[in-house]
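hey so i finally got around to running the thing on that chain from the lab meeting. sorry it took forever, my laptop kept dying and i had to restart like 3 times. anyway pasting the input first so we r on the same page abt which one it is
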Amino acid sequence: MRIVLKYGGSSVATLEKIEKIANYIKSLKEKIEEIVVVVSAMGKTTDELLKKAQYFTSTPNKREIDMLITTGEQQSIALLSLALNSIGCEAISYTGYQIGLKTVGEYGDSEIVGVDTEFLEKKLKENKVIIVAGFQGINEIGDITTLGRGGSDTTAVALAGMLRCECKIYTDVDGVYTDDPKKNILATKISKISYDDMENMSRNGAKIMETKAVMMGKKYRVPIFVGKSLGSENGTYILD
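ok and heres what got predicted. didnt touch it at all, straight out
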């Protein structure tokens, strides 16, 4: 059995949170043999990197911005790998480039067109947890590119599709609601929702899942679970 897990920036915002996730993954490894984990940059790291670029120019070069902000995810994957290995759970981290995640399109808003699944399949057989930097890939001329808002979700769903397994998106909310529960006390959690309905919600402003990630899930028929990090499994499934 295999699974792809994805942890957003708020889920890995501190070293303590990364440590808790590592402990959870170690316990999960006893039940699920092959685990791929996709992570975002820690907390507000991407915003902080963008502010640094703005120090020099208000119109930074998009190629260089992609080169800069992808370092946030590299930090997260290395730290999670270190945390797992320190508790006796073998893990190894990879950038988008290293797993052959190919992209096309503009810097800052690229599309995934392929992944080196042969490489991933080989690494999964080595019994290590594979940790992948979300949000990034490499284009046809060898430049690092980013996938736009919610790009780590798209990375995770794409990998699950190509590896033919379920994808669990862990974030700071416990599922998909009929409305924003912070603004509407009558909003109720949805236990199951179709790809099409989730895509419509995303296009209409729901921030829980990016449209590109939902469309990727629909393309590969990936069962997508959305739930709270280290919370119960009482979240939302996005299915046919």
